[in-house]
Design a protein that fits this description.
Helix content is about 35%, strand content about 15%. It has 14 helices and eleven strands. α1 runs parallel beside α2 and α6 runs parallel beside α9. It is globular, with a radius of gyration of 19 Å. It starts with a strand and ends with a helix. The structure holds iron/sulfur cluster (3 copies). One iron/sulfur cluster (SF4) binds next to α12.
Length: about 325
Amino acid sequence: MPRFHISNIVYELTGACNQCCRFCYNHWRPEGAPAPDPARARKTLRKLLSQCSVGTISFSGGEPLLLSNIHNLVIRARLKGSHVNVLTNGTLLTQDALENFVSLGVGAIQIPLLSANPEVHDYLTSLKGSWEKAVDALRRAGGKGIGVSVLVITKVNAPGVSETLSLVRDCGIRTVMVNRFNIGGNGIRNMRELVPDSKTLASAFAAVEAFAAAHPDMRVVSGVCTPLCFLDTAPYPHIQFTKCSTDLTGRPLTVNYDGDVRFCNHSPRVLGNIYSRVISDILQDPDINALYAGMPSECSHCHLLERCGGGCRAASEQLYGTFSKQDPIIDVG
Ligand code: SF4
Ligand code: SF4
Ligand code: SF4
């Protein structure tokens, strides 16, 4: 019988991180997380890969490079036939670590660069010197052809978006994720400072669009669904906006080092644990699927509902404790 297949999993190797970004979406962030546990991360990965095949595993955290055995984990996933990406803040990416990732066939190393201005980047990460390390890591990963950059647009860095993208390109990067700040984790505490109003967000995306149009060799993707009544995406044809599906057996999922399965890395709700129930049963459970069937009542008469889905409702889970309300950026922005 063919093994149960999941196309895309974000595997959180640890909840710990050496940065404390003001916008960090990790739902556990304000309280912190236990120290990295390499043995636990290895055991859970083995358990996961015994229950299903996975098309692409993105090693994330927290900061995944805090795990001393991350390369062994990559080998295990690669031997099981998975593509592997690494989502890191870049500050701990040594040259040896990078070259090992390249040798092991890691497809992408994703590193955030928040501004061309070191002070703005370091302010947002709360770590002095992080800009220099992130730029250095991006240049080296770009040189190997596996670097991907991430730009989280907040009110603080929105005015410098064009300069940031130019620096990303100068680092040899040709794929960039441009996501608007999504409320959650530390970002709840800082949301008044960080959430851009819709006009500011629209002009930041206009700058991204102009950059993407001027550089056809760049792939620009925006991965956090934004309510269309907050940001109309039509004026930005050169940006690839993704859509969030609620089909649990087809969508990207998140599993953490303890085996907890979640809808995505932004969602705090645990759907089940792979040590007590196989992941295929969790994902095909009708009661669990029913949790994602409803639509926000605020959106019930909106003609854009099918395209929009009410924005990011994992952010609603974090702020309001329910998936059934529209994205909180509408109230806060
Ligand atoms: S956003 Fe990433 S780098 Fe920043 S604190 Fe959170 S896990 Fe660490
Ligand atoms: S579906 Fe809801 S969030 Fe989306 S545009 Fe309509 S009212 Fe706004
Ligand atoms: S719920 Fe939000 S963060 Fe999660 S995948 Fe969908 S848009 Fe992205």
